Amino acid sequence: MTIKENLQQIEANIKETCRRVHRDPNEIKIIAVTKYVSIATAQKAIDAGIQHIGENRDKGLLEKREALQGPIVWHFIGTLQSRKVKNIIDKVDFIHSLDRLSLAEEINKRAKRNIQCFVQVNASNEQTKHGLSVEETVPFIQKLAEFPNITVVGLMTMAPFTDDEEVIRNTFRKVKQLQKDVQALNLPYAPCNELSMGMSNDYIIAIEEGSTMIRIGTSLVGKEI
Q1: Which three-class secondary structure state does DSSP give residue 38?
Q2: In 151-211, where does DSSP find H-type helix?
Q3: SS3 98
Q4: Does residue 141 contact residue 120 with C-beta atoms inside 8 Å?
Q5: pLDDT of 91-133, one tens digit each?
Q6: Cβ partners under 8 Å of residue 134, min gap 6
Q7: Could you tell me the pTM of the whole model?
Q8: pLDDT digits over 7-26, tens only?
């Protein structure tokens, strides 16, 4: 299937899922994860109608940002080392991996404008994943009040890679509840209106549980590298 056909299938799945759980499909944004594909393939995704591009590495983001044509919203979705913040800080619209105060300090120091960030939550407590525990998340967000260049637009998580749907669903539900907890604080710098949850293997469950941004790589653009 072509990228356009893949996108049409994903959009149809989103529409059907939203109909089933009484959500508006316009609430869902598809982020094309282009880490494993060429610039030419990423351009095909944009030509097919994708507006949001996500990259995991600073080098990949900078290369694609230089080459791709079109109205693009740029998402940095990988682990961000503090020393690399300066490379991407004025090149991205969203950072999905804020998970420690040292990184917040660097973003705040380097930013020339307000940066929209997702706080990364390791809701499944997997040792191989980055992110804050569920218990750490709200206290961490409260500490971000001292960084005027950061807005917490939402939370990001990754569910375990498993066929056990209940494990996946429970992970997403924990983060949805966390979102409600943050919103209840009415922090002006943390509206937390977005949830970045769901990838190629679990985005339908993520939408059922409240995701507003799904990060799709293989199912949309494939894997070349």
Answers
A1: coil
A2: 165-184, 203-208
A3: strand
A4: no
A5: 999 999 999 999 999 999 999 999 999 999 999 888 888 999 9
A6: 121, 123, 174, 175, 178
A7: 0.96
A8: 999 999 999 999 999 999 99
